Amino acid sequence: MSKIKKGDNVVVIAGRDKGKRGDVARVVDAAHVVVNGINQVKRNTRPNPMKNQPGGIVSKEMPIDVSNVAIWNPVTQKPDRIGFRVMEDGRKLRFYKSNGELINA
Where are the chain's structural domains? Predict the structure, then answer.
């Protein structure tokens, strides 16, 4: 079970976009996530008439390392670390390390 999942609100803690917040759009692999509005790059694309796609400079989000993002805790209004807790019925749930509250699962 990964600590960062799709839909989580995260804040960038290192790199060019440090301090920016956004939602996780997708998890690329165990070590990389794509966050909406974060780590945007400009790509030169060629036109493709078969897909009705114009050419030009396109801005797109690139993956960012999981170690450079932290989940946003809405209660404390700060970035937070994540731990795991096994419930009595066997479910494994995530919780915030600072205040111990469970993350919506």
Answer: 9-74
| Nearest Cα residue to 38 out of 59, 58, 53, 7 | 59
Tens digit of each residue's pLDDT (9 = 90 or more) over 4-31: 999 999 999 999 999 999 999 999 999 9
Residue 104 has pLDDT above 80, yes or no: no
Alpha-carbon dihedral angle through residues 4, 9, 13, 18, given to the nearest 10 degrees: 140
9-74 maps to CATH 2.30.30.30: yes
- Classify residue 24 as exposed, middle or buried by CB count within 10 Å of its CB (0-12, 13-18, 19+): buried
pLDDT band, residue 1 (cuts 50/70/90): confident
What b/e string do you get for 42-69 counting C-beta neighbours within 10 Å, with b at 16 or more? eeeeeeeeeeeeeeeeeeebebbebebb
